[in-house]
Design brief:
alpha/beta, 2 domains
Length: 328
């Protein structure tokens, strides 16, 4: 991802409402219910070491849990592949945070260290498969297991969270995930409408503006033809109006391009394998590029599909947010 995306994304997660919606909607653990979100605060440079301050995509928040501080370390991971060493990275970052809390006297000499919840937000195409526990990176040796670090981090894999997001209509992070998933024009317009309603009121003015900038520079920009200027919508209402104007135009363009690609590739494959086999191979390749390796039941379903089913699935893949949307 480029710096424009990274900066717009970080601004979104610099708002307490996003952190609250992230924890309550996507972290299904009992301790979340005991958080006092009225105490939620983002730490400034005074609390963060030089090493952490120079990490542009990381955020540190804290919130009271039954009267004690809990720290939330949020790492925004926008690379296209898994980081195998993420567990080690997280252990180092949390250690640096603890070190700075001690140095700044946030932690008294004989106090216990506060708990930290390490959280990675990932929006790459392949599923996140990197080890999530530090001990998984260390070669086992009999008798030494108890001496090895066990820290684990939590991953929000956006590309695999759309089913959860659809169950949370009033959650701003769910709307973000829906908009990131290359939705149809209608779904995009509906998600923006929900955002506008969720964030009504003067207390959300800054977050509304952050979403507007992100929509302009990231989501809408991806759908513009090369060379077209980035829109300068000032409010979510303006974004919604612009989508209404362009929705039919985008839909026709996407459908035309998708069908054209299918016809061209189908002809090429068809010369070698026959028309039906060629269309099946093209659709399988498109599904793999968008959603990753296909499970065997999906491949079998494709191989047994009728011509009409292949046509239907080829249309659906244009706007599908996950592979289930194609075959529903």
């Amino acid at each position: 991802m480029d710096n424009t995306h990274d900066g717009a994304y970080k601004k979104l997660f610099s708002h307490p409402q996003m952190i609250r919606d992230l924890l309550t909607g996507f972290v299904a653990q009992s301790w979340v219910a005991d958080l006092d979100f009225s105490t939620l605060e983002k730490l400034n440079g005074h609390y963060v070491s030089d090493d952490l301050r120079h990490r542009q995509d990381d955020l540190v928040w804290r919130v009271r849990h039954r009267g004690e501080w809990l720290y939330i370390y949020v790492l925004l991971e926008f690379q296209s592949s898994n980081d195998h060493w993420m567990a080690l990275r997280m252990m180092v970052y949390v250690g640096l945070l603890y070190q700075d809390l001690i140095k700044s006297r946030e932690i008294k000499r004989r106090d216990r260290l506060p708990p930290v919840f390490p959280l990675v937000i990932y929006n790459g195409m392949p599923s996140w498969t990197a080890p999530q526990r530090m001990s998984e990176l260390i070669s086992p040796l009999p008798g030494l297991k108890t001496f090895q670090p066990e820290q684990r981090y939590f991953v929000l894999d956006e590309g695999r969270s759309s089913a959860t997001a659809r169950k949370l209509p009033d959650n701003s992070v769910a709307s973000l995930i829906e908009l990131e998933g290359n939705p149809s024009p209608e779904t995009m317009q509906e998600a923006v409408r929900r955002l506008r309603e969720q964030l009504a009121g003067p207390q959300h003015a800054s977050l509304r503006r952050a979403f507007t900038v992100w929509l302009n520079k990231v989501i809408i920009h991806k759908r513009l033809a090369k060379g077209q200027p980035i829109p300068e919508n000032e409010t979510l209402e303006e974004v919604e109006s612009m989508l209404a104007e362009r929705m039919e135009q985008w839909k026709r363009e996407w459908e035309r391009k998708g069908r054209a690609l299918g016809r061209v590739e189908g002809k090429v494959e068809g010369r070698a394998e026959g028309k039906q086999e060629g269309r099946t191979a093209v659709l399988a390749r498109q599904l793999t590029l968008k959603f990753g390796t296909l499970p065997e039941p999906t491949r079998r379903r494709l191989s047994e599909a009728s011509s009409d089913e292949l046509d239907l699935w080829a249309d659906r893949i244009l706007f599908a947010q996950n592979i289930e949307d194609v075959f529903c």
